[in-house]
Design brief:
Helix content is 14%, strand content 32%. The protein has 280 residues and is an alpha+beta fold.
């Protein structure tokens, strides 16, 4: 297993807390379809054939696009029989959590609340599902096998009556870039991560697509841990900051937001550290 660290904390740079990425497991994606069974097909593969967003650039005209909140949760795919992570690993959701899900696929996010990623992760990766699953919501934003463009797939979803712990994500039309910035400010002021834009009429196309765009006030990256710098004062004798290197060779320090436990046992040299930033 590969160790990755993921956590958000205040500041221009954000080191993301430790998670273990589970080993890839072979899974099967259901292929049936109609109004009770959608018609498009998703091929069999070890990982779900998910549609992934690109980053929005200012030169892209987004007038008339659909916007929804970008939730800081765990991407989840219901294939009709199993609830899988983005990497294709089956979750250990309680039976009641999946009992009323449909026989056709759903794409969404497992989510506890804003700024609660670490808690969501702790619940979902537990090998024995506990009572804390009652705090998890499955936020559904698409039906990958439903026929038609984005609006038709949303209409299809609206015909379904989900159980209480499943919520259909609301999408709003964006009039122009000013409208987009207003929506982004509103979401971020409420503790949200950002927005996802979806092109009107777009098909569900697995892979990275320009028909879905992420909009955030910060960017994300990965860096390699190349050094542990000692702390001073109250952090004397343990980690002060991490020295990290980007793929292009740039180096910098990540030094805030660590818990006491993380300072005692920092990410090892050579490990990959995802981080968020608003600029170097």
């Amino acid at each position: 297993m590969k160790q990755v660290w993921k956590r958000m904390f205040p500041g221009t740079l954000a080191l993301l807390a430790p998670v273990l990425i589970w080993a890839k497991e072979q899974t099967t994606v259901r292929k049936s379809g109609s109004a009770s069974n959608p018609t498009n097909t998703v091929s069999q593969r070890s990982q779900p054939a998910l549609m992934l967003a690109r980053h929005w650039e200012a030169e892209i005209d987004i007038r008339g696009w659909w916007a929804s909140e970008k939730f800081d949760g765990i991407r989840a795919f219901w294939n009709g029989t199993e609830l899988l992570t983005r990497r294709g690993n089956p979750t250990v959701a309680p039976e009641w959590f999946t009992a009323l899900l449909p026989e056709w696929p759903l794409d969404g996010e497992l989510w506890v609340g804003r700024k609660q990623f670490a808690k969501t992760l702790s619940i979902v990766r537990d090998t024995v599902p506990g009572a804390e699953w009652s705090q998890v919501r499955f936020l559904v934003f698409d039906a990958p096998q439903a026929a038609g463009g984005f609006e038709q797939r949303q209409t299809f979803l609206q015909q379904w009556q989900p159980p209480e712990h499943v919520r259909l994500v609301t999408h709003e039309r964006v009039a122009n870039e000013t409208d987009l910035q207003t929506l982004l400010i509103r979401v971020e002021q409420n503790g949200g991560e950002g927005l996802v834009l979806r092109r009107p009429g777009s098909l569900y196309s697995p892979g990275r697509s320009g028909d879905w765009l992420k909009v955030k006030s910060y960017e994300e990256g990965d860096a390699e841990v190349i050094g542990h710098l000692p702390g001073k004062g109250k952090h004397s004798g343990r980690l002060g900051s991490l020295q990290v290197r980007l793929a292009d060779g740039r180096e910098f320090k990540l030094g805030t937001g660590f818990s006491n436990a993380e300072r005692e046992t920092p990410p090892p040299l050579g490990s990959t550290v995802p981080f968020r930033y608003s600029g170097f």
